[in-house]
Structure formats: structure tokens, C-alpha cells
Task: structure prediction
Amino acid sequence: MNSRETNRRRFLKKSVALAGLAVGGMRSASGQTPGSATPDGSARDPRLYGERSSFEKSAREIERDGRTRPFSSAALLTPLQDLDGIITPSALHYVNDHGPSKDELDPRNHRLMIHGMVERPIVFTLEELKRLPAVSRIYFIECPGNTTPNSNGRSRETVQQSHGRTSCSEWTGVPLSLLLKGTGVKSGASWVVAESADPQKYAKSIPLDKCMEDTLVAYSQNGEAVRPENGYPVRLVVPGWEGISSVKWLRRIKVVDQPYLFQNEIGAQPHVRHDGKARWFQFVMGPNSVITRPSGKQQIPGPGFYVITGLAWSGNGTVRRVEVSTDGGRTWKDARLEDPVLPLAHARFNLDWQWNGQEAVLQSRCTDDKGFVQPSLEELGKIWGVQKSFWTTATTNMGHFNPIYPWKVNRDGSVHNALFA
Result:
């Protein structure tokens, strides 16, 4: 028996022991045995994989900003205004890549290597990962550039354009902590480097503490394999943190003693302040919320009863309160939070509203269980040390822009973005 196979057997036994399970209790999360046949590409009856009604047209929207993004080749925005509940359908999950398009990876040939400052380096096949104890968690993923104004200083017209870079899925996979404990992390290690299999070999430095807390190596999204554009066959999910940390097409995890400061980490991704300085590592996504109905470019038929609905989330933990104002922030009412309200996940809120046909400004405000409150645009300006005009003229790479977002309802029932009104 070679050393590689010995290490793998030792790892599997140690990992199962850490999880409090028996080796005999393991089975493939896919319900298949290793080496199961894969589709041969032949024509299949379309009824075998369900399709939505032909009357349903909701779709992702291609980002049309004109902003120069040297590390981004595609941006597809989630139509939050069309969705109900908190789960984003896999086919509508937002996409933001950091390199050129790539060929789909064959899961039979894909490997995940864990090495660096560990006692027992190891290489996994996908099927070997699926033999390990799995967990399922509902987490949101959000691009740090979500909600930022256009490069021409104008706010975006619809929820999809303004907030479409966040999505929420049920992710299934192996806790990264289980893999790291199984390999035996050496003393002095404090970071990991996660590398993608895309042509540019996108890589991200992540603190070891976060990896040991709640990070997942995920191979399933909403009950089926992760979609190709979202990291098939395996990806990281780093809940509550910038989406750029959740490396897709994961091929390598190296345990190290310091961040590696890749070009994207010190060049493209840092968020530049008005004084020219930048923060290289800004991880947690702050409290945020948005009213999805009624919202920008929608039309209210006429005066009467409506239910205002939307989504709230926070990378700090769990949404505890959402307030809604219908008069531009002069008065606020507590919205109802729909169950389930989960840590690091989208939360759905509702508020009954009787519209009298007069102009109204609708907006929502999120408070999380750590006491952090979503700021107004003016409050965010004070945090940044800038005037309101800064947001409409800035050409730097802004991120973590999470102000209260207002929608103006006109007397004719049309709804428009009022962030900079």
C-alpha cells in the first residue's frame, strides 16, 4: 500500500472520528457509489429534468455598467424583485467571475489538494469528499460591489440592477474545519490560501479562524450539484463575508502563516477611500435590506391595499429587526419577519400598506443581532468622511456600500429609485 493511500485511509478514519460517526455509516451524498456512470450527452426526454412554465420569464440580467473591471469577465444579476421566500433558484444565482470563461470541469478528473503547514497533505477526488460527513446550511453570498452606484454617478433603476449581486442558497458539503483537522494543522498556521481551477488561477487569502468556524467545501446547491457558473464541481462558501472569498472551482487549499497578498488582493479588490488609502482585507458584509415590491420600474395599479415585501441580511449574524418607512424616513414601523430567520441568510419581511394615491417614499432598515444598524446615505458618508456628492462622482473601487435604499411612488403609481433624489 503506497503512502498516499495510507494517508487517505488515515484521514477518513480521523475525520469520521472527529465528526462522531462510524466509518460504516458513511455513504455518498449523491446516492451513488464511486465510479457511477455519468451522462453520455445523448438526447434525453425533456420531461426528465423539469422546466418552468413558458409563462414565467424571470431571468438574470447582464451587468451593463461600462465600468472597467480588469479581473471580471461576466456579471449576471439576480432578479430579486421577482422572487419569493429567501432561497434563490440555482439558475438565477448571481454570477461574477474573475477571469475568462473556462471549459466545464469533468468531476471524474477534478482533484482538491490540501497541503502547506499540515502534518498529512492529501488529495481528494470528488467522490472521496462525498464519502465524508456532510452538512447543509442556508447562506447568502454577496459581492462587495453590490448596491454601488454606476460609474457615471447615477443610482440604478431596479432592484435587480442595484442589489442583484446577492443570492441565498442551501449549500451542502464538508465543513472545511473537518478537512483541516484531519490533515493536522501545524502550530503557527494562521491563514489558508484557496485557489481556483479557472485559467487565471484566482486565489484568495482567508484567515484560518474563519475556516475553522463555518466555512464549507460545497458540492451541492439547493439539493443538486453546484451549477457550472457557480463553481462546479466544488467551491468554497465563506458565509457572511465578501463573495470574493468564496472561491469557485476549488482545486487547492494551502495552509500558511500569513496572507499571500495576491495581485487581486492588493490591486483590484481593495476599497479605496477618499484620501487615497485602501483597506486590503475587509471581510464582513454589513447589515443590508431592500424593498423588492413595490420597487424601481414597477407600476402600482392604483390606490388600495398592498403588502410591501423585501429582503434583509447581515454578515454579522442574524437579522433581528426590519423597519419600513412609507414617508421617506420620518416615521418607521416594524415589519413582519417570515420564518425561517437564519444566521448569515436572507430574511423575508412584509408590511401591510394602504396606499392613498399620494406620493410616497418607501425604504427599509435592517438591524442584526449584534446591534449593527443599516445606515442612511448621510450616516454612511460620515463613516467614510465624505459628503453626499462623493457617491455621485467617485471613480474609485467602492465596496460595502449598504445605505438605506428609497423607492419613490408617484401619483400615477410608477416607482423610481430615489437614492440621490
In short: Residues 288-417 form a domain with the Immunoglobulin-like fold (CATH 2.60.40.650). The radius of gyration is 23 Å.
